[in-house]
Amino acid sequence: MTNLEERIQAALSEDDEAFLRRLQTERGLFTQIGEIFKGPMRWWTVAVNVFVVIATAVGVWAVVRMLGAEDTRGLILWAAAGWAAWTLQITLKQWLWDRMNMLGILRELKRIELRLVRLEDRRV
Q: DSSP string of 65-80?
């Protein structure tokens, strides 16, 4: 290991180093999805996915009931329930995708931080 690499590693905390090691390779979609199930937010991610499944089931059920409604009032109420369930599902999925996006941004910020440390090292 060169002197420069030793100084860079000394400048970065252990958490930063572990984070950078995890992010060295390009990740596919399924790898990125898997990463949202790690870290301190993993239980929130699991809970949100459970709610997505529930909202999907409620939405399908409401649409089926809407199609079988015998009066206009029932049709409107089941359509509203289906719309609310699908809107909830979309909102929860958006949270999950935003979380994936945030992790990608953190990855790039860590790369920039590493480059800045290297530039700072060159000046010394």
A: HHHT-SSHHHHHHHHH
Do 83 and 113 meet the contact criterion of CB atoms below 8 Å apart? no
Position 72: which residue type? T
Please tell me whether residue 13 adopts helix, strand or coil conformation.
Answer: coil
- 47-102 residue pLDDT tens: 999 999 999 999 999 999 999 999 999 999 999 999 999 999 999 999 999 999 99
| Full-model pTM | 0.67
Q: How far apart are the first and last CA of the chain?
A: 19
For 39, list phi and psi in degrees, rounded to 5: 90, -170
Q: How large is the angle between the packed helices 72-123 and 42-67, nearest 10 degrees?
A: 150
Task: Output the CA angle 87-90-92, nearest 5 degrees.
Answer: 110
Domain-wise residue ranges, the chain: 3-123
